[in-house]
Design goal:
single chain, 1 helix, alpha+beta, four-stranded antiparallel β-sheet, 2 domains, Rieske Iron-sulfur Protein
Length: 156
């Protein structure tokens, strides 16, 4: 292989590697960029029973996550496969947050007594707004968008 052919081969490979890296970074920024458009980034989107419902389009949007009766008042449920925790702080009001602890990224374990609990280092988060109730975590849980329509809780 001549020197110029080798240069073209390397430039082509680098271009592909850079393009793939840029696409991955763009996807990550898009995925982490907000709460679904219904609230400020990093805040949970509160959805009362009988909400507006989802469009059914997008990454799992419209997929039934749970029934309202599956989420206890004052408690919640962790959905590990979706990376979410859904809470019902007061009767008929539902919130969703990332299930990834902001301390070191462990998955939260459960919701009890009004707090979302991380088993790794015992951080606790308020089930109504995701704020830190007890450290070592210093940042709140990022909010996530859900829709409640009838008795179905869906991904927004």
């Amino acid at each position: 292989m001549t020197r110029s052919q080798e240069a073209v081969r390397l430039i082509g490979r680098r271009t592909v590697v850079v393009a793939v890296g840029a696409a991955g970074a763009a996807a990550a920024l898009t995925a982490c960029g907000g709460s679904g458009g219904d609230g400020p980034a990093g805040t949970a989107v509160e959805e009362p029973v009988g909400g507006t419902g989802g469009s059914g389009a997008g990454d799992g949007a419209g997929a039934v996550l749970a029934r309202t009766t599956d989420i206890p008042v004052g408690g919640g449920k962790v959905f590990a496969d979706q990376g979410l925790v859904v809470t019902q702080p007061t009767a008929g009001r539902f919130k969703a947050f990332s299930s990834k602890c902001t301390h070191q990224g462990c998955a939260v374990k459960d919701v009890s007594n009004g707090t979302i609990n991380c088993p790794c280092h015992n951080s606790t988060f308020d089930a109504s707004d995701g704020s830190v109730k007890g450290g070592p975590a210093k940042q709140p849980l990022p909010g996530a968008a859900i829709k409640v329509e009838g008795d179905a809780i869906t991904l927004a």
